[in-house]
DNA sequence: CTCGGTCTGGAAAGCGCTTTCCCATCGATC
DNA sequence: GATCGATGGGAAAGCGCTTTCCAGACCGAG
């Protein structure tokens, strides 16, 4: 015979209090925790009533009464992209371990969406917001995002970015440039001298950093990538595929191709395969996406600890804000595999 | 000179009302929508004030006042698994198109977590909850989930499941069995007669259905899979890899192996490659994971429209509840590729 | 003019909680 | 035996909104 406050259809704390024969205040203290203690016998009575009525506290009401929530917003570009889903997995794991809920939004690479979603999170009074996404060099969009994040922090929320250090907030900085530089050094060390780069979108900072780092790494061995061997395109599989074909059409004779991420590298491999060149032209990627570790030939790449990056970002927002934005640097590690067997010197 | 209700640090509707020189009620009607109209001139004044103060409505407070939220909970097993991240992408897209926020949780295949999260969603008074995850045959866990979902629906929320029709709620039913049956028929048609199956975990319904369907399909051509050629293991890449090695150790002579999902199939391919058998033993998977479309040899599989499945589930919860649970059947389509070139009859 | 009706703004009553007061009780203290 | 400090229960005041309900203004009809 469960008495429900028929109006809304959900069991409220008042129902529980009535059932247990105590006041609202006592019920609240017994069930949802408080500094104040409650006599064990009464606590037990309340808990039993709650169980009998299958009560669950209205988190919204708690949030509005307490002035804070246990929600953290995570913004990624595309959850289908394994790069982001790994980061999300790390963030979610860390969130769960700390009793937080994660709300995820995908921006589909539209910077405005980031701002929009950050505003929504401010509306939800989220405890924190984590934004994983390559910044573009669109100064306007960046300013708007900065303003919104500022408002978010002023209203008591915590913010962390994943990617590059572009705004004065806590950031997990991914050493794209250094990783790509290392890769360039190693590939030059394998004897390659003629390179192409599938460089991704021009305005994507991550892509630009990787390109820059790579050419630096090669420069250490006096290898230069001629401008016409740098092909821009989309940041995804098809972008890699098409850019590879473009490159082949332009200058057929490169020994090694660097795609600025693994997904593009796989597209490039497919393109090479369609031309029968998969064992002729070496290919390297970036990220070391788990799902792609079994492609053939196994992909040389720069391993990024994506799950840890997600965890690290969440750790940052769990900490009290520092007076100055924190930076946490994450480096990648070059992994040489079959896709770059090295030049037999001739 | 922005006056803020200093206490909480966030701009409230009251601040806006004061700034605009109107009542709280009017401000609410002007900004956050209402059946009632507001004189355009006043509305404009309120909107300007809101903009000046950079006001964002407290969604929690709105939720508690209105008695509903625009939050939908999505439960997946592992967001890193491309199967689930594609479903999530579809669900998120559809949610965004309808002004809903998505909160995602990963269960890591622990059925209890599903219940726990559903309860949390009830606490958040989420508008809906979508659960994507292979049910296990654990009757107890299923009952608990059923009870919780029931409570959730009674409190006014909507529920949809993705997978198999196991509970009396709206469900996007994935035709695992039929898809696997079709695959069996086609593979038998290619001339294979001796099969192995990498069958995944024993208690996972999805895996069991696919196994059952596959053997049915083969049976149509009077091919039987001997029990010792069915190897159980984990549902992931390593599970496929290890199961393949086990199978090879047990009975080396199978012509074709069916792994109950693509990720396992890739693991199996890796295992075969390590034995130099990648062109000797045919391999088929299930799902047609996007990221895996470029593995070599290209994988024969059953294509599942994962993104659409996610969208469909969200569509279901957007509709008014029907008197009887809805079912929406999604079939897979066999895609034959190089990994099953067919037997040259000898 | 007066009367019902339509607009539109404001006061106030919620929504379901938490938390501050207030007060009764009780054992310990002098 | 009066006093004091804990202890723990309840009433009520919020939290930031939405949504009644009420009242004044304005309109055309009679």
Oligomer: homodimer
Measured by residues with Cβ under 8 Å of the partner chain's Cβ, the largest interface is: A-B, 58 and 58 residues
- The total of beta strands of chain A comes to 12
Q: Give the helices and strands of chain A as they follow along the chain.
A: HHHHEHEHEHEEHEHEHEHEEHEE
Task: Give the percentage of residues in beta strands of chain A.
Answer: 15-25%
Structural class of chain A: alpha/beta
Please summarize the sheet with the most strands of chain A.
Answer: 6 strands, parallel
Could you report the average pLDDT of chain A, rounded to the nearest whole number?
91
> Strands of the largest sheet of chain A, in order across it?
2-1-3-4-5-11
Q: In terms of per-residue confidence, which ranges of chain A show pLDDT below 50 for 5 or more consecutive residues? A: 1-7
Shape of chain A: elongated
Helicity of chain A, as a percent range: 40-55%
Radius of gyration of chain A using CA atoms only:
26 Å
End-to-end separation of chain A: 89 Å
Number of helices of chain A: 12
What would you note in describing this structure?
2 copies of one chain form a homodimer. By secondary structure, the first copy, chain A, is α/β, with parallel strands linked by helices. Chain A is built from 12 helices and 12 strands. In chain A, the strands form 3 sheets. A 6-stranded parallel β-sheet of chain A has the order 2-1-3-4-5-11, sandwiched between helices. In chain A, strands 7-6-8-9 form a 4-stranded parallel β-sheet, with helices on both faces. In chain A, strands 10-12 form a two-stranded antiparallel ribbon. In chain A, helix 5 packs across helix 12, helix 6 runs parallel beside helix 7 and helix 8 runs parallel beside helix 9. The radius of gyration of chain A is 26 Å and the shape is elongated. Chain A starts with 12 loop residues before the first helix and ends in an 11-residue tail after the last strand. The N terminus of chain A is likely disordered. Chains A and B meet through helix 4, helix 5, strand 2, helix 6 and helix 11 of A and helix 4, helix 5, strand 2, helix 6 and helix 11 of B. Chain A binds a DNA duplex (30 and 30 nucleotides) through helix 2 and helix 4.
């Amino acid at each position: 015979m469960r008495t429900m406050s028929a109006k809304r259809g959900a069991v409220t704390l008042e129902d529980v209090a009535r059932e247990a024969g105590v006041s609202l205040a006592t019920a609240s203290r017994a069930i949802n925790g408080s500094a104040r203690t409650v006599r064990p016998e009464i606590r037990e009575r309340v808990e039993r009533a709650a169980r009998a009525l299958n009560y669950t506290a209205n988190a919204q009401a708690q949030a509005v009464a307490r002035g804070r929530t246990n929600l953290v917003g995570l913004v990624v570009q595309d959850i289908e992209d394994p790069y982001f889903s790994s980061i999300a997995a790390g963030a979610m794991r860390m969130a769960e371990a700390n009793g937080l809920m994660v709300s995820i939004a995908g921006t589909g690479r539209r910077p405005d969406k980031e701002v929009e979603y950050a505003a929504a999170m401010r509306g939800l009074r989220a405890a924190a917001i984590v934004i994983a996404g390559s910044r573009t060099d669109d100064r306007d969009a960046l300013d708007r995002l900065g303003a919104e994040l500022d408002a978010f922090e002023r209203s008591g929320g915590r913010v962390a970015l994943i990617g590059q250090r572009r705004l004065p907030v806590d950031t997990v900085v991914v050493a794209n440039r250094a990783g790509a530089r290392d890769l360039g050094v190693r590939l030059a060390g394998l004897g390659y001298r003629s390179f192409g780069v599938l460089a991704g979108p021009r305005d994507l900072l991550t892509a630009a950093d990787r390109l820059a780092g790579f050419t630096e790494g090669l420069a250490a061995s006096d290898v230069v990538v001629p401008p016409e061997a740098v092909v821009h395109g989309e940041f995804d599989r098809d972008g890699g595929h098409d850019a590879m074909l473009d490159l082949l059409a332009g200058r057929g004779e490169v020994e090694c191709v660097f795609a600025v991420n693994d997904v593009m590298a796989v597209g490039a491999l497919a393109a090479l395969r369609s031309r029968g060149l998969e064992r002729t032209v070496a290919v390297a990627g970036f990220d070391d996406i788990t799902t792609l570790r079994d492609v053939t030939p196994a992909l040389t790449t720069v391993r990024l600890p994506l799950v840890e990056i997600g965890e690290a970002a969440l750790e940052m927002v769990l900490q009290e804000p520092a007076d100055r934005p924190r930076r946490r640097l994450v480096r990648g590690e070059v992994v040489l595999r079959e896709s770059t067997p090295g030049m037999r010197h001739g």
